[in-house]
C-alpha cells in the first residue's frame, strides 16, 4: 500500500511539474503583470491544497487585492507586508489561519510585491516546493514581461525618433534645396545688374525665376519695363485718375512699411527705395495667387537689385547734369575755348560746330528738365548742354543743319511743341523760349546768352507770351539796348512818356499801360478794353486824358510810331524808368 501511495505521489508530482512547465510557457507570453499574477494565484489552488488570499504589487496598484481583483480592507496585512519588504514571511496571524505565507515577487531582481497564500494546515514539503517553483516562474514571467514592455517602449520611442529624424531630414533637405534656389536667384539677379542690362534685365530674370509676368514701374505707375506674356497695351490709369493716384499712394506707403511684398489685387508688389524716396516699383502679376515664399523672396531681392540699378542711374544722371551745368556756366561766363571743347568732348558734345544759346521758361518746374532733354533729342536730334538757372533752363544747342520744317516753322518751334507735349496739361500752360544768335566759336556763347535773355524778355512782354522768339526776329527791339547800356533808351522813354509817367506816379493811374496796350492792339477799342479788363467808356476817358496830359495827337503817324516804340521800351525797362 505504501508503494502505491508513493507511486501516486510521484505521478502527482510529475503532473504538477508538467502543469508548472505549461503554466510557465503561458505566463511567458503575457505582457500584463496583473494577468501574470492572476495566473499564479489560480495555479496555487490547482497545484497545492492551499488557496490564494491576496496579492500586493508595487507596479501601480493601490492596497491589498483579492484574487478577483477587489481591494481587501486588511490594514494589518498591508502593514505586515510593508514590514517584510522584499523578504518572505509568515502572515498567519494577519490572515487568521493556521498557516499563511507571503512570498516576495521579484521582477528583474527588483522587488515587485507579495503573493499571499493560506492553508488550513501546514502543506507538505512537496507542495511548498511547488509553491516556491510557482513563485519563481511568476518572477521569471514578470521579468520577461517588463523586458518586453521596455523593448516595446524602446521600439515605440525608436519609431518616434526615426519618424522625427525622417521629418527633420525632410525639412533639412527642403531647406537646402530652398537655400540653393535662393542663392541661384541672388547670383542671377546680381549678374543682371553687373551685366548692365538695366531695368529690363532685372525684370527678365525675375520672370525666369518665378514663371510669372513682371512689371517695372515708376512711382506714379508709368510702365518702365515688362517681362513675360500679357504686356498691357495701355498704361495704367494712375497718372490720370485721381482716385487711382490716392490708392497708389496708400499702396506705396504700405509697401514701404512692410518688410515683405504686399498684395495689390492680382499683383504682388515690392518697392525700390534707397531711403525714404520711392524710385520704382517691381510687381509680380499673380491673378491665381500661386506665389509662395520663394516667389516673394525673388521679388523682394529683385526690388533690392532694382534699387541699386535706379540709384546708379540717378547718380550717373546727376553727375552728368552737374558736369554739363558747370560747363554751361563757364561757357556763359566766357571760359578758355580749348578747355571748354575738351570738357564738352568728354561729355559727348561737339562744340566745334555752330551753336546757339536758348533760355526756356515754363510755369511748371516738375519734370521740366527731363521733358526738355527728351524733347531736344526728338526735335533737334541731339542732347544739348543743359543747366537749370534761376531765370529758366539754359540750353547750349548745336545749330540744326537742315532747312526749316515743311510748314515753314523753325526747329526751335518744334522744340517748343515737343516740350509742351511731354508736360502734362495739369502742370501748367505752355512756356516761352528765347533763342540767341548763332555763334561759330564758344567765345561767342556769352553774347548769345544775353541775346536769348533779351528775346525771352520780349516774348514774355508781348501780347501772346507763349512760343519762340529768335534774336534775329526782334527788329526794333535789337536797338533798344546795346551791350547792356540802356541810358539812351531811358531818355527816349522819358522824352515821349515823361508827363504820363509822372501823372501815373502822382495819382496812381495807369495811363502809360493803357497807351501801350492801345498801340499793341493796333488801336482796336474792343481788344484794348479786354486786355486792360476795363469798359469801352473807361478806355475813351483814359485816351482823352492821355491826349490832354501829353499834348500829343495819337492819330499822327510819326507820333504814333514814337509812342509805340517808347511804350514797348517802357514795358521792357519799366522797373527802372519810372523811378
Give me a quick take on this structure.
With about 575 residues, the protein is of the alpha+beta class.
Describe the protein's architecture and organization.
The relative contact order is 0.04. Mean pLDDT is 81; it is low at 575-579. The strands form 4 sheets. This protein has a 5-stranded antiparallel beta sheet with strand order 8-7-11-10-9. Strands 13-14-12-15-16 form a 5-stranded mixed beta sheet. Strand 9 (262-264) and strand 10 (267-272) form a beta hairpin. The protein has 579 residues and is of the alpha+beta class. It folds into 4 domains: 2-155, Beta-Lactamase; 195-315, Beta-Lactamase, CATH 3.30.450.30; 334-469, Alpha-Beta Plaits, CATH 3.30.70; 487-577, Arc Repressor Mutant, subunit A (Orthogonal Bundle). Helices cover 56% and strands 14% of the residues. The protein is built from 17 helices and 16 strands.
Task: Please render the helix and strand layout as text.
Layout: H1 2-28, H2 33-47, E1 51-57, E2 64-65, E3 71-72, H3 75-84, E4 89-90, H4 92-95, E5 99-107, E6 110-119, H5 125-194, H6 198-210, E7 214-217, E8 223-227, H7 242-257, E9 262-264, E10 267-272, E11 280-285, H8 293-333, H9 337-346, E12 355-361, H10 368-380, E13 385-389, E14 392-398, H11 411-422, E15 432-435, H12 445-461, E16 467-470, H13 487-507, H14 511-520, H15 525-532, H16 536-550, H17 557-577
Parallel strand pairs: 15-16
Antiparallel strand pairs: 1-6, 2-3, 4-5, 5-6, 7-8, 7-11, 9-10, 10-11, 12-14, 12-15, 13-14
Helix pairs in contact: 1-2, 1-5, 2-5, 5-6, 5-8, 6-8, 10-11, 13-17, 14-15, 14-16, 14-17, 15-16
Amino acid at each position: 500500500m505504501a508503494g502505491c501511495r508513493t507511486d501516486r505521489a510521484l505521478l502527482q508530482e510529475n503532473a504538477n511539474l508538467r502543469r508548472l512547465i505549461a503554466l510557465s510557457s503561458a505566463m511567458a507570453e503575457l505582457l500584463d503583470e496583473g494577468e501574470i499574477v492572476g495566473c499564479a494565484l489560480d495555479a496555487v489552488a490547482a497545484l497545492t491544497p492551499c488557496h490564494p488570499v491576496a496579492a500586493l504589487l508595487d507596479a501601480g496598484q493601490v492596497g491589498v487585492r483579492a484574487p478577483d481583483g477587489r481591494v481587501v480592507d486588511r490594514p494589518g496585512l498591508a502593514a505586515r507586508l510593508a514590514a517584510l519588504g522584499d523578504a518572505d514571511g509568515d502572515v498567519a496571524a494577519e490572515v487568521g489561519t493556521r498557516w499563511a505565507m507571503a512570498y516576495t515577487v521579484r521582477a528583474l531582481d527588483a522587488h515587485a510585491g507579495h503573493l499571499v497564500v493560506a492553508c488550513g494546515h501546514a502543506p507538505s514539503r512537496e507542495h511548498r516546493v511547488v509553491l516556491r517553483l510557482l513563485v519563481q516562474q511568476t518572477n521569471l514571467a514578470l521579468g520577461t514581461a517588463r523586458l518586453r514592455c521596455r523593448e516595446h517602449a524602446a521600439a515605440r520611442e525608436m519609431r518616434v525618433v526615426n519618424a522625427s529624424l525622417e521629418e527633420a531630414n525632410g525639412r533639412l533637405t527642403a531647406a537646402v534645396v530652398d537655400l540653393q534656389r535662393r542663392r541661384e536667384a541672388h547670383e542671377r539677379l546680381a549678374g543682371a545688374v553687373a551685366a548692365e542690362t538695366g531695368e529690363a534685365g532685372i525684370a527678365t530674370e525675375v520672370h525666369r525665376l518665378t514663371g510669372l509676368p513682371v512689371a517695372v514701374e515708376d512711382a506714379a505707375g508709368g510702365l518702365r519695363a515688362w517681362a513675360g506674356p500679357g504686356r498691357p497695351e495701355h498704361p495704367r490709369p494712375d497718372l490720370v485718375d485721381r482716385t487711382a493716384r490716392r490708392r497708389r499712394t496708400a499702396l506705396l506707403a504700405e509697401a514701404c512699411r512692410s518688410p515683405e511684398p504686399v498684395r495689390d489685387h492680382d499683383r504682388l508688389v515690392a518697392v525700390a527705395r534707397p531711403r525714404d524716396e520711392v524710385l520704382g516699383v517691381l510687381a509680380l502679376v499673380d491673378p491665381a495667387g500661386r506665389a509662395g515664399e520663394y516667389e516673394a523672396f525673388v521679388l523682394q531681392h529683385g526690388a533690392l537689385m532694382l534699387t541699386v540699378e535706379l540709384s546708379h542711374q540717378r547718380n550717373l544722371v546727376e553727375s552728368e547734369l552737374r558736369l554739363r551745368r558747370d560747363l554751361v556756366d563757364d561757357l556763359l561766363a566766357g571760359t578758355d575755348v580749348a578747355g571748354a571743347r575738351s570738357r564738352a568732348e568728354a561729355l559727348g558734345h561737339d562744340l566745334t560746330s555752330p551753336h546757339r544759346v536758348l533760355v526756356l521758361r515754363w510755369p511748371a518746374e516738375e519734370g521740366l528738365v527731363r521733358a526738355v532733354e527728351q524733347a531736344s533729342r526728338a526735335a533737334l536730334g541731339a542732347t544739348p548742354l543743359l543747366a537749370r538757372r534761376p531765370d529758366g533752363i539754359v540750353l547750349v544747342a548745336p545749330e540744326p543743319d537742315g532747312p526749316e520744317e515743311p510748314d515753314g516753322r523753325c526747329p526751335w518751334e518744334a522744340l517748343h511743341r515737343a516740350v509742351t507735349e511731354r508736360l502734362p496739361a495739369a502742370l501748367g500752360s505752355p512756356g516761352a523760349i528765347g533763342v540767341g544768335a548763332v555763334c561759330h566759336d564758344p567765345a561767342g556763347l556769352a553774347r548769345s546768352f544775353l541775346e536769348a535773355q533779351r528775346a525771352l524778355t520780349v516774348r514774355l512782354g508781348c501780347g501772346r507770351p507763349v512760343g519762340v522768339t529768335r534774336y534775329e526776329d526782334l527788329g526794333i527791339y535789337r536797338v533798344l539796348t546795346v551791350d547792356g547800356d540802356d541810358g539812351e533808351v531811358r531818355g527816349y522813354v522819358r522824352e515821349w512818356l515823361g508827363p504820363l509817367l509822372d501823372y501815373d506816379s502822382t495819382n496812381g493811374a495807369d495811363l502809360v499801360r493803357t497807351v501801350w496796350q492801345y498801340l499793341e492792339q493796333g488801336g482796336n477799342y474792343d481788344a484794348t478794353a479786354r486786355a486792360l479788363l476795363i469798359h469801352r467808356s473807361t478806355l475813351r476817358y483814359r485816351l482823352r486824358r492821355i491826349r490832354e496830359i501829353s499834348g500829343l495827337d495819337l492819330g499822327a503817324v510819326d507820333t504814333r510810331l514814337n509812342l509805340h516804340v517808347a511804350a514797348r521800351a517802357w514795358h521792357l525797362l519799366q522797373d527802372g524808368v519810372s523811378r
